[in-house]
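YM 10:42: AAA family ATPase sequence, as discussed on the call
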Amino acid sequence: MQSLSLAYRQLNTLILGKPQAIRLALACLIARGHLLIDDVPGVGKTTLAHGLAASLGLDYRRVQFTSDLLPADILGVSIYQRDSSRFELHKGPVFAQLLLADEINRASPKVQSALLEAMEERQASIDGQTHPLPAPFFVVATQNPGEQMGTFPLPESQLDRFLMRISLGYPPREAERALLMGEDRRAMLARLPPVMAPETLLALQSQAAAVTIAPALADYLLALLEATRRPGLFHTGLSPRAGQALAAAARGWALLAGRDYLLPEDVKAIFMPVAAHRLQSATGAPVEQELDRLLSHVAIP
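YM 10:58: structure's back
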């Protein structure tokens, strides 16, 4: 747990004024989830992803998604070696422990879908052969607003593979002042020390999976899921897989707080980042607004 606190403090020195977003990102990785950071350019999305990898001691690769990117650029390709008379696999960047898919919605849906198997099964199929990915394995994707030129919306099946979607937003005035007067973030990243080993992170993931959910808390989760499925609120409600995602993320949040049991506050803290990108409003109101109203009406045990 000490290493988690160290990672949290270190990331807060890198990304100023965003403690909630940093805590959510850590909870997501502890829950073995993939993270989507959705925001305008220049607010620190890539810096946060790189900082997570550096602080957690993870092998890190970055792919800049563009309209001409091919699936093989992510997965890798088998190349025939004349000397040995056989094909040799040249692994792509997906074989890192943390893959940053930068501006994922600037690539075509075909390329976006190349990550589906990796995100869900933690394996990659190349030329008919299946190859396991490293453990731990995470995808952190950044996404620009859909109204910007040259973007392709992520399909629902892809969005569902991300445990959380978060936004950083503009920093508070004092934090931005410190950014203007302080050290360049890239220079800070270059010397950011790891405060955790990948093996420690794997152990923390096992601890998070063992966090106790009391029957009353399970009923609260079920009530939230059922509330999203009422006719007229959303086009489709949250699925059972989304319910499992809520439980996993809440467990990660509880572990960050140093607890081995779940409280209603854990569920409420992660509900919006886990649920919002999986839903489409049927009322015309923003999804977040409908979810806020839903949270206020569902009874807390």
